[in-house]
Amino acid sequence: MGLFSRKDNKLKIVAQQNGKVIPITEVPDPVFSGKVLGDGVAIVPSSKEVLAPVSGIIAQIAHTSHAIGIESDDGLEVLVHLGIDTVKLEGQGFICYVEQGQHVNAGDRLMDMDLEFIQSKGLSTISPCIITNLDEVKNFELFTGDAIAGETTVISYKK
Question: Is 81 a known active-site residue?
């Protein structure tokens, strides 16, 4: 698979996790549901693996490993946030396989998140994937439903 899959001149962001894709407005956190940081989708994950939704450079990894920012090769800023309020776990429940400045391809493994551990702490595992620099996108389309990490398109866009 190349950098981005193209169909009708649209670029795509793929699911970062296996699970059910839901609208960002259904995320139980006002920062995400209110689109304060950007727009996108969220996944209710069914497995621990977290894959790169786009090809690009790892721009930032939260010191608690609950969030990762990627600057895509075409200039999008994509934020993957693992769970809601998971910053409180101070890194517990997460294993990171990449480092800041590293180039990744869409579908590369970024992290693992321990779903059972996170839920045992009373936290949600819902994981948003959002575009934070929407001014770079002319238009985009969001998809919901069942997703396979690294394969299912969750956002298609034109620059």
Answer: yes
CA distance 87 to 73: 28
Mean pLDDT of the 122-128 span: 98
Q: What was the pLDDT predicted at 1? A: 39
One-letter amino acid at 23 equals P
Instruction: List the CATH number of the domain containing 66.
Output: 2.70.70.10
Going by C-beta distance under 8 Å and a sequence separation of 6 or more, which residues neighbour residue 8?
none
Round the CA-based radius of gyration of the chain to a whole number and report it: 14
1 falls within a domain: no
pTM exceeds cut of 0.85: yes
Give how many domains the chain has, as a whole number: 1
Residue 98: give the domain boundaries: 11-158
Considering the candidates 63, 66, 81, 103, report the single residue annotated as catalytic: 81
